[in-house]
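worker-03 picked up job from queue 'complexes'. Input manifest follows; four sequence lines, order preserved.
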Amino acid sequence: MQRRNNAMSKKLEQPTQTLKTPRGRRPNGNGLSSTTIMDVAREAGVSYATVSRVVNNKEYVKSDTRERVLKAITSLGYVVNQQARSLAGGRSYAVGLLVRDLGSSYMGEIVRGIDESLSAAQYNLMLYTTHRRKIKERIYVNNLIQGMTDGLLLVLPENLEAYLETLDQTNFPYVLIDHQGLDERTPVVITTNWQGGYDATRYLIELGHRRIGFLTGMMDMRSSQDRLSGYQAALRDHGLPADPQLVYEGTYYQPEGYAGAQSLLRLPEPPTAIFASNDVMAFGVMEAVRDAGLRIPSDISVIGFDDIAQASQVAPPLTTVAQPLEQLGREAVRMLLARINNPEQPIARTILPTTLIIRQSCDVPRNV
Amino acid sequence: MQRRNNAMSKKLEQPTQTLKTPRGRRPNGNGLSSTTIMDVAREAGVSYATVSRVVNNKEYVKSDTRERVLKAITSLGYVVNQQARSLAGGRSYAVGLLVRDLGSSYMGEIVRGIDESLSAAQYNLMLYTTHRRKIKERIYVNNLIQGMTDGLLLVLPENLEAYLETLDQTNFPYVLIDHQGLDERTPVVITTNWQGGYDATRYLIELGHRRIGFLTGMMDMRSSQDRLSGYQAALRDHGLPADPQLVYEGTYYQPEGYAGAQSLLRLPEPPTAIFASNDVMAFGVMEAVRDAGLRIPSDISVIGFDDIAQASQVAPPLTTVAQPLEQLGREAVRMLLARINNPEQPIARTILPTTLIIRQSCDVPRNV
DNA sequence: ATGAAAGCGCTAACAA
DNA sequence: TTGTTAGCGCTTTCAT
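worker-03 finished. Artifact:
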């Protein structure tokens, strides 16, 4: 090791009072000149490395030293400076969350799961909303992995191809939520969409329905395709024909539920039940049915998908396939933190079960 | 000026190859060893202070130097490290956003306004959701002002008393959204709730209604009180009695719209119109009215407040008082950034106008 | 107009 | 088990 300048000289040269504005640091903008690890060290009578050890729960600290440091921390109201910590090579204790939009209960519930788990782990959340502008996804992702966050959560990403490779190459931790990923090696948390579609359809068939209308979601989403396949499989398994006229292509928004139902009801041989690929469209269906002068469930049965909070509040309460949305968020965080804490962690795919929730919007068909 | 150690010696002593793991820094976790200001400086043949000047758009940089640096930045794909910047006394370029929940269109629209403005200003957003647990508000606020963010946005805070003083004392920039604040010196962005309540009521009166039911929001919120006052003032101004039986106390959730309407319709002398303090309750009202076998608007007129996206999508489309929610968010960001950029900025209160949106849920009363 | 250097608060390697 | 120190990448002052 070569000889370096003696750092001690710095301290010795220090005038008692700082006469000039110190270089670099501007005088903190807001008043609050926060307590640092140094203040704590002084208070506890230890070196500041020891304080760091205590703060980071490292081993090799005598328990009474730890005690003393902890006390100093409390009495001084010390809070670590995340930026410094992160700059020094530690964690940033923040994860990025990339979503399309926030106005729906669907997103609300997922985000609730995410931020509850995250705050339990003392992590911060950086939010990025793309508003469906695909370019933004890539820009955000590039910023995010630039040291700002320790990991990334992507809900229903639309432009994966543009950055998944970068993410994988740099081994940056991430988890997709409600998206199948590009292949089996992508870490994802998804639900049993096919089974949900199957279960709802079978339920209607078992009630006696023979003509069941189906409203799809956006068909470029794998989940939408799976729900449709589940519906078709249930029909097939019960020997019912798959009449393409009964399938209406929607995009998960309420007005399409209304329009879809209208279109199905105008069919020469209309369905006796309508299965909408999400609750929001089911609400549109309910309106259209009522506006057509029909009653739910006596004239027409309606079933949804998601089980958002509103589903139990409409009249009649909506029978639907519950997705464990909040759990989806919690599970994603669990997986992400596992990868952050251990980059060697093998990649997992978590599949959570959907559940048929029977309420009052379905009944046996009229003429049975 | 006292003589300091010659920093140049550092460089001269540097062995050609680093033989040991450098202290402090762990080898970056993920592969990506990002380009720094130093790399750019070397590439452009300037000192790294100059690069900093260029990046921060400071004056005193010859334009061809600037040119050269910019080119180096592009060719190297350099992105500033926010943590380092913030640690060195600059901005963190992040603002904190504290909300109750995210599942509603109300919040969705406000947040959209916020994050569009923020991303236009190259700011990041740290999200904190309280889920209505008041203790969390204070904890979050304390963390947030600890250097993590440059400012704070609070939507409908519930526990202001616990930290507003801290915020003011440290002169930390913040803006309240849709909340009146503790006094006139609190920076807020609000809407004309009283006027909105007045306008909607006057509209119904002018249609010929004499008995108008009113569903309040949570009465501990000033906005709810104002809407109610506006309603009462309109009645008074038009010589109508303020029958307390016609006022039902709700809490802004849909089931209370349903229950409230049921209760009003059961009155010996039921109203011919119902004014709900938000759209979500108005949807509940619409259901209850229909379930009572009445038609909208021929039997009963219904009017809401907020003008969330769904309001135009239900049948019949809901007449309502529009709040410029997205603009609320944009305006709050504008005010916040102004204060961040100039702490001397006088405190402003912004009041945005509500607008009556006439759709098809109101008509003249039956017996007129 | 540019460069030199201090130091923001912290983590982790190394020494003791 | 604890202390010492380098250095993370940057902003800003001072000197030139």
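worker-03 released lock.
Residues 325-341 of chain A form the longest helix (17 residues).
Residues 1, 10, 22-25, 34, 36-38, 48-49, 52-53, 55-56, 58, 80-81, 83-90 of chain A lie near DNA strand C (CB under 10 Å from a C1').
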